[in-house]
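User: Here's a chain of 123 residues. Predict its fold as tokens.
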Amino acid sequence: MLGLPAAAGLRGLIPVWSTSSLGPSWRLNVRRFASKIYQFVPPPRGVITDHKIFLQRCGRGCGELADKFQSWEHLFIVTSEQMRDELAIPTRQRKWILGWRHHYVRGIDPKNIPIRTKKKKKK
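Assistant: Prediction complete.
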């Protein structure tokens, strides 16, 4: 345990801490705390110069929601709960915006991906 030699005689006295012994509420609170501290706002790049163009490039009607966001920083700092409660953005568009926001932070520019339609089966 913990890399101590058996001759130390401390094997039974050293508590082994793990996050699982603290319960799921501890992990949830750490996750919430960490998300409040570090919120990265990437700079606009390439063709995307502001939040309105970003939302238009996302597609699926997100361009119509551009007036609900105050600025580029607001688009990347606002949480899903705030989008739902304060900005009244529908669930599908909210998830779509959050997904493209996640991709943009990692270097992938948004593009319009059309909704797939099911083909009718031939009888």
